[in-house]
Design brief:
Layout (H helix, E strand, L loop, with lengths): L1 H11 L28 E8 L5 E10 L5 E9 L6 E10 L2 E5 L5 E7 L2 E7 L10 E10 L1
Antiparallel strand pairs: 1-2, 1-8, 2-3, 3-4, 4-5, 5-6, 6-7, 7-8
Amino acid sequence: MNHFLIFLLTLAGAGPASPPAAAPSALVVTQGPLRPDHALGVWSGDIVGPGGARRSLEVSFVDGLRPETLFAYFRVGDPIQPSTTLRRLGRLVNDELVFDLREGGRIDFRMIQGRLRGAVSDPAGQLTPHRTSAIELLRLSR
């Protein structure tokens, strides 16, 4: 009789009660650890100064000398000012891509929802006339 009851419950789709699975939060974005190859390609965006002043920025990332490194070609400019291209070797440090600038400056990038977001500390003024700025880049091509 028990076998017949189990058979009927199986056909009806009812089974032993199990705890409901936890619903995923809409605010939580799971992302694996950043690797240098995630950034390879051409990215475009802006450098945003402390007062909100924007300068266009295009960055091309290519393979570096070792697996945890990559080269970046930073091209800054706008139609009025001549463009500047800066080449830097970067490395992966604690889930951030880090590029050193002159006089102790640096650029740090984190991958957040498919965008590269970062901060610039630039005392020598290589990329921006401001000592500190923010960067946000969107991928153009791989």
